[in-house]
C-alpha cells in the first residue's frame, strides 16, 4: 500500500509542442544540458544503464546513474535510480531504487509534463525522509530547468 510519503508528484505546463518536450527528455545530450549531467549524444534506450558525472553546481562529486525502464515516444520515459545518492564513499547499490516516470500530455497552450517518483517507502529508514525532502525540492528545480530549456529551443 502506497502512502503520501512514498511518492513525489510534480507538474508543469510547458509552452512548447510535445515533440520539443520529448526531445528534451529523450535526447541524452539535450537532457543532460537542462538536468545537469555530462551526457554525450544519442538517445536513451530501454534496458540501458546510464552513468555520467553530474555538472550541477555543488554536486559535481555525484554520479548520475539510472536504468531506463520504459520509453514510449512523445508519451513517457521511466527510469530507476537510488534517490539522493550524494554522499561521498557510500555504496548505494544494495538499496532499493525509486521509479521516476515522466509523462507528456498535449493540452491547450502546450504540453503538460508530469513527473512522479515513487518507492521511497523502500529506501532505508535512516535516509528516507532526507531523500524524499531532497528529491522533492530537486524536482521543483528541474521543472523550472526544463521549462527554460524548451522555451529557448
Which CATH class?
Answer: Alpha Beta
Globular, elongated, flat, extended or rod-shaped: what is the shape?
A: globular
Q: Helical content, roughly?
A: 25-40%
Based on the structure given, which CATH architecture is correct? 2-Layer Sandwich
CA-atom Rg in angstroms: 15 Å
H/E element order: EHHEEEEEH
Kindly estimate the percentage of residues that lie in beta strands according to DSSP: 25-35%
The first-to-last residue Cα distance is 41 Å
- Corresponding CATH superfamily: START domain
Rounded mean pLDDT score:
94
Question: What is the topology?
Answer:
Layout lengths: L6 E8 L3 H9 L1 H8 L13 E5 L9 E10 L3 E6 L16 E10 L2 E9 L6 H27 L2
Antiparallel strand pairs: 1-6, 2-3, 3-4, 4-5, 5-6
Helix pairs in contact: 1-2
Notes on the protein architecture:
The chain is α+β, with helices and mostly antiparallel strands and 153 residues long. The protein has a single domain, classed as Alpha-D-Glucose-1,6-Bisphosphate, Chain A, domain 4 (2-Layer Sandwich), CATH 3.30.530.20. 29% of the residues lie in helices and 31% in strands. Strands 1-6-5-4-3-2 form a six-stranded antiparallel β-sheet, covered by helices on one side. Helix 1 (18-26) crosses helix 2. It is globular.
